């Protein structure tokens, strides 16, 4: 008999959250705090979505997406989670760049960038200040037709080196490109520049463990290995979800799953107005990633001065979007994890990440896929030799992930690392106007992705659902409505 992962679950809930990424977890927590009955359904065997980790023999724990986030996480975690979580957020001080144009170390905040842009790149202080202010003052209601490239051309014409300094980490942080709206750059860049780059002490496993504890304490019914096949809609309203062969009634669903998969997979195009379907079909997915995970043998010590915490390394002569996505890898972002990142442990690890296209991996025959993975690992070790001399002799465990890996574990179409491009935000926000009770809170539109963006989006959508449930219960008794 297969195990029943819904054993003891009720037949109806005020709200069902589909997916336990940071957006889904935070939405569930916020709604439970507001007094609603919440069911959280996750298809994977663990919570966290892309905020995840895995273990390898020898006591190694690899973090998949814990490379850096802005200071705003402290405030959001304190307010919407707990003091313990917020107090575990610490700054990464060694952010390094190494490419044919320049090599430097920075704390990656406004003060240090002002210094660097002046002394190293020769930009007048007034121009630097104006650029920072322009980036910081961007908001959603701004002109969305200006691209990031046009923004840079306005302040730093002809300066490819400065574009590289300003853009490379943001492309890595949210997949945005020079061709995307400047707004998507300005918001994320300014978030980082406010205080620098931060991480979670103790690793992703500790963070998700603390979040799960809080959810359960708050009464959220948390279920893993529960893949939702269908969100049932009739008469323009959400009625139920279908999961593991059961029908669970609800009047509100928040999907934390991929936006496109939610609309065309779980709900079905026929439930939306044709114009909306057209708009949803035009939403582009963001790119995916490859990663190489390296654990060093016990006793091996990595030189922090040479490697830093985050190292943006490239051999490409200039910064170009197509080069960043090419299977012929020239740019890698290395995260180095020191024992201080996981207090009480003595392990040193390195994760190399590169933006990648799903299509370059999806069509490969099995043997070619395995061969490409081996090449990915070997190419990364060759490149990392510059920073960790003799790296091959120092390795205890090595593994890699491709766009197919990300798709497999999170069900993100094409293994998208940061959800959808900017146009996805309007579609995500438009769902409840199409179907009463249908919401989406997951990576969309570049600014609502990444750890901070996804978490904050979870709060925003939970507040919408809270208002919906309040109105809904005052207008129509839930039990009558659901028995239709
Ligand atoms: C390689 C990589 C590195 C990254 N590095 C960083 C970084 O350094 N800093 C940063 O801020 N961000 C980083 N990110 C991005 C960040 O991890 C994500 O933007 C964020 O975690 C996404 O959260 P989310 O709420 O959108 O949900 P996701 O993490 O996308 O989770 C969605 C969840 O829904 C579940 N699901 C899907 N379909 C169903 C279904 N039918 N039924 C039930 N469950 C379902 C999935 O299993 C998954 O758990 C990185 C991403 C990648 C891929």
How is this structure best summarized?
The chain is of the alpha/beta class and 484 residues long. The chain contains 20 helices and 19 strands.
Describe the secondary structure blueprint for this structure.
Blueprint: E1 15-18, H1 22-33, E2 38-41, E3 53-56, E4 60-63, H2 72-80, H3 83-87, E5 89-92, E6 95-98, E7 103-106, H4 110-119, H5 125-136, H6 148-155, H7 160-174, H8 182-195, E8 197-200, H9 203-217, E9 221-223, E10 228-234, E11 237-243, E12 246-249, E13 252-255, H10 259-267, H11 274-281, E14 288-296, H12 304-307, E15 310-314, H13 321-325, E16 331-337, E17 349-356, H14 359-362, H15 366-384, H16 391-394, E18 395-401, H17 403-410, H18 424-434, E19 438-440, H19 450-475, H20 478-482
Parallel strand pairs: 1-2, 1-13, 2-9, 6-15, 13-19
Antiparallel strand pairs: 3-4, 5-8, 6-7, 10-11, 11-12, 14-17, 14-18, 15-16, 16-17
Helix pairs in contact: 1-9, 1-19, 2-19, 4-5, 5-8, 6-8
Structural description of this entry:
Helix 1 runs parallel beside helix 19 (450-475) and helix 4 packs antiparallel against helix 5 (125-136). This protein has a seven-stranded mixed sheet with strand order 7-6-15-16-17-14-18, with helices on both faces. Strands 9-2-1-13-19 form a five-stranded parallel sheet. The chain is of the alpha/beta class and 484 residues long. The model is unreliable at 476-484 (pLDDT under 50). The chain contains 20 helices and 19 strands. It starts with 14 loop residues before the first strand and ends with a helix. It folds into three domains: 15-45 and 224-283 and 418-482, FAD/NAD(P)-binding domain (3-Layer(bba) Sandwich), CATH 3.50.50; 53-91 and 198-205 and 287-410, Polyamine Oxidase, Chain A, domain 2, CATH 3.90.660; 109-195, no CATH class. The chain binds flavin-adenine dinucleotide. Flavin-adenine dinucleotide (FAD) binds at residues 18-24, 41-44, 49-51, 64-65, 67-69, 227-228, 256-257, 289, 291, 353, 406, 410-412, 417-419, 442-443, 449-451, 454. Flavin-adenine dinucleotide (FAD) binds next to helix 1, strand 14, helix 17 and helix 19.
């Amino acid at each position: 008999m297969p195990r029943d992962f819904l054993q003891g679950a009720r037949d109806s809930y005020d709200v069902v959250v589909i997916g336990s990424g940071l957006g889904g977890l935070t939405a569930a927590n916020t709604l439970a705090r507001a007094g609603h009955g919440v069911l959280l359904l996750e298809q994977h065997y663990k919570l966290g979505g892309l905020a995840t980790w895995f273990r390898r023999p020898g006591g190694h724990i690899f973090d998949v997406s814990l490379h850096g986030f802005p200071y705003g996480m402290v405030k959001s975690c304190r307010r919407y989670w707990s003091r313990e979580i917020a107090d575990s957020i610490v700054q990464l001080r060694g952010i390094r760049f190494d490419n044919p144009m320049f090599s430097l170390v920075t704390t990656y905040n406004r003060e240090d960038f002002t210094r660097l842009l002046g002394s190293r790149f020769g930009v007048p202080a007034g121009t630097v200040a104006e650029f920072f202010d322009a980036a910081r003052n961007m908001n959603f209601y701004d002109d969305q037709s200006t691209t990031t490239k046009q923004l840079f051309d306005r302040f730093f014409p002809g300066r490819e080196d400065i574009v590289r300094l300003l853009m490379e980490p943001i492309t890595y942080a949210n997949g945005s490109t020079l061709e995307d709206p400047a707004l998507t750059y300005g918001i994320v860049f300014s978030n980082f520049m406010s205080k620098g780059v931060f991480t979670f002490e103790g690793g992703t496993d500790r963070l998700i463990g603390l979040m799960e504890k809080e959810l359960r304490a708050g009464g959220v019914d948390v279920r893993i290995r529960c893949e939702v096949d269908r969100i049932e809609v009739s008469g323009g309203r959400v009625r139920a979800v279908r999961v593991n062969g059961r029908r669970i009634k609800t009047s509100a669903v928040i999907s934390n799953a991929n936006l496109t998969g939610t609309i065309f997979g779980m709900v079905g195009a026929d439930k939306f107005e044709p114009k909306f379907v057209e708009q949803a079909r035009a939403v582009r997915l963001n790119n995916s990633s490859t990663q190489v995970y390296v654990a060093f043998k016990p006793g091996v010590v990595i030189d922090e001065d040479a490697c830093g915490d985050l190292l943006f390394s490239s051999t490409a002569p200039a910064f170009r979007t197509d080069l960043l996505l090419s299977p012929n890898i020239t740019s890698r972002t290395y995260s180095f994890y020191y024992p201080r990142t996981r207090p009480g442990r003595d392990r040193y690890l390195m994760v190399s990440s590169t933006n990648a296209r799903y299509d370059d991996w999806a069509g490969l025959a099995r043997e070619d896929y395995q061969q490409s993975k081996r090449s990915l690992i070997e190419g990364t070790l060759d490149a990392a030799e510059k920073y960790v001399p003799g790296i091959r002799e120092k390795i205890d465990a090595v593994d890699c992930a491709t766009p197919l890996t990300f798709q497999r574990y999170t069900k993100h179409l094409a293994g998208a690392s940061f959800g959808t491009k900017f146009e996805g935000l309007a579609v995500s926000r438009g769902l409840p106007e199409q179907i009463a009770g249908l919401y989406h809170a997951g990576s969309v539109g570049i600014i609502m992705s990444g750890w901070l963006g996804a978490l904050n989006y979870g709060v925003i959508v939970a507040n919408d659902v809270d208002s919906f449930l309040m109105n809904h219960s005052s207008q129509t008794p839930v039990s009558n409505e659901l028995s239709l």
